[in-house]
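Possible regression after last week's pipeline update?

I re-ran a chain I had predicted before the update to compare outputs. Posting the input and the new output here so someone can diff against the archived version. Not blocking, just want to make sure nothing changed silently.
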Amino acid sequence: MSFLDYLISVDARTALMGRMMQRLGVDRRLKVVADHGAVIDRAVNRCRACGHQGECMTWLDQDEDAKEPPDYCRNRDLIARLLHVSGEG
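New output (post-update):
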């Protein structure tokens, strides 16, 4: 894999994380949590290290009424906490 291929894959994974957060309605809440920069960095790193990009993309394209992320999502716990804090979970 070339360095450019790596950068493209990292950006694609970050975009998947953004779509997941939007789909589940926690994207705005993520931006206002304490130390949100560090929280977002850790979430991005978990997403980057995930091996389920294809499954995630398919899930995001198909499961429009989901109330929680798929079991394999490495940010599942973070999303659950954000949903709970907001009173939606």
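Follow-up from reviewer: compared with the archived run. The longest helix spans residues 3-23. Marking as no regression found.
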